[in-house]
Design brief:
The protein is α/β, with parallel strands linked by helices. It has 13 helices and 19 strands. Strands 2-1-3-4-5-6 form a six-stranded parallel β-sheet, with helices on both faces. Strands 7-10-11-12-13-14 form a six-stranded parallel β-sheet. The chain has a five-stranded mixed β-barrel with strand order 15-16-17-19-18. It starts with a strand and ends in a 6-residue tail after the last strand.
């Protein structure tokens, strides 16, 4: 068989897709880059919010058109959407030939064989089983890749379906993570992006205590690692030991993705978020004081239940006060089966979208101020290639995570290879991105 993949959603989903691709490679079947011409197309989906579900369905319908035209033979749907709506997908989208839940990524080859044999595979293994270990075929550039250190979530926020899709929080054994990191570095990785639904809980289930700091020390000891980036640190689990580790380990870049979702005490309480506004304010003050140059990225949800006008105004003022350099702002999406969806104190959808626009405007001004503060500074930039349209090299500073943040465009006298770290003097901005010029002739 010829099997191809489409990966949607978050970086954790991407890692699952990379593992499935490796399983196909190791079978007697052929891994294809293009969907057209494949026997089986596997669509690895996100089912977190309405926009993600819509994207998944759009991709399924696009593949259905290829199937109707005879360019592909079978369609399998894996990931969160199939975990959540497996039988419904098969009933309402007859073009789909089989489904795999979030506990059955390892069954992808068997499912493809069953579908090609005329069957309708339905694989739904336990979502609480130990995290699948195994090889990956990286689809990110070799110099920058993700390492998933845990699966699932124990936070049970009132608006979120992830625990019901991904299961309870399960840490990977530390030695497995370190071994994977060493292999990735041997393959050329210079930036390791540490991911999980909540990396701050790492080790609690497996070792009986917070072990993220210990893991980070081991990763920093690997020769060849240049940047270690941290994603999804929940505010209530950030320990003193972790702060000290981030502040003192040079390879851990001072970029912290800490989703807060809101700051109003009532909203936080109703959403089952631990900690209140006073705690958040104290935490961010501590991080800014102890971690030089720290850039904080957060996530905000506008229109959550119990967010009245006063609560929304409080959120606006909190953003202005904290000046988060990076933020993602989203409208609340009531998800069936969650406690929040049953709450009566709701915000109208149009009003929620209006509030998103206001928050984005506030955040845009904060980001512009941050970009302006770097004018004239020399910063380290990870080159990602040459942009022929801009006629400049393009890369990322430590303040820019792939796919969610901006870029740095720069000129250089000598050729710069992707994956090189370049000292760049910031001289301007362009549509929210920064521009500059390389200040040395040799790059790492």
């Amino acid at each position: 068989m010829k099997i191809s993949f489409i990966s949607l959603g978050c970086a954790k989903n991407l890692v699952n897709c990379e593992q499935m691709m490796a399983l196909v490679r190791d079978s007697e079947h052929t891994l294809c880059k293009e969907q057209a011409g494949s026997d089986v197309v596997v669509i690895n989906t996100c089912g977190f919010i309405d926009s993600a579900k819509s994207e998944a369905i759009d991709n399924i319908l696009q593949m259905a058109k290829l199937k109707e035209e005879g360019k592909i033979k079978k369609i399998l749907v894996s990931g969160c959407l199939s975990q959540r709506y497996g039988e419904q997908i098969l009933e309402e989208l007859p073009e789909v030939d089989g489904v795999l839940g979030c506990g059955s990524y390892v069954d992808v080859v068997a499912a493809a064989e069953e579908a090609m044999g005329g069957g309708t595979p339905k694989y739904f293994g336990s979502i609480n089983a130990p995290v699948d270990e195994g090889d990956r075929i990286l689809v990110t550039p070799e110099y920058s890749t993700y390492i998933r250190i845990a699966e699932g979530c124990d936070n049970h926020c009132a608006y979120c379906v992830i625990p019901s899709l991904r299961g309870k929080f399960r840490s990977r054994p530390m030695e497995n993570i370190v071994a994977e990191a060493e292999e990735l570095v041997r393959g050329g990785a210079k930036e390791l992006i540490i991911i999980a639904q909540d990396i701050t809980r790492y080790g609690i289930d497996l070792y009986g205590g917070h072990k993220l700091a210990e893991l980070l020390h081991k990763l920093c000891a690997i020769n060849g690692v240049h940047w270690i980036r941290l994603h999804y640190l929940y505010p209530d689990e950030i320990t003193e030991d972790l702060i000290d580790t981030i502040a003192t380990e040079e390879k851990i870049i001072p970029y912290l993705d800490i989703p807060i979702q809101h700051c109003n005490d009532l909203v936080l309480d109703k959403m089952h978020r631990r900690g209140d506004k006073a705690y958040l304010r104290e935490l961010f003050a501590k991080l800014k004081e102890r971690i030089p140059g720290v850039v904080i990225r957060t996530s905000i949800i506008a229109g959550l239940p119990y967010e009245d006008e006063d609560a929304f105004e409080e959120l606006c003022e909190f953003l202005k006060e904290q000046k988060f350099q990076r933020a993602g702002v989203f409208a609340y999406s009531p998800e069936e089966g969650t406690p929040a969806a049953a709450m009566e104190e709701r915000v109208d959808e149009d009003e929620a979208n209006r509030r998103v626009e206001l928050l984005v405007d506030i955040q845009s001004r904060i980001m512009d101020e941050f970009n302006e503060s770097w004018m004239g500074d020399v910063i380290e930039v990870l080159c990602e290639g040459f942009d022929p349209q801009a006629q400049m090299y393009i890369g990322r500073s430590y303040a820019d995570s792939p796919d969610v943040d901006g870029h740095v465009y720069f000129v250089a006298d000598n050729e710069v290879a992707p994956g090189a770290f370049v000292p760049v003097r910031i001289t301007g901005s362009m549509d929210g991105d920064m521009t500059g010029e390389a200040v040395e002739d040799e790059y790492r």
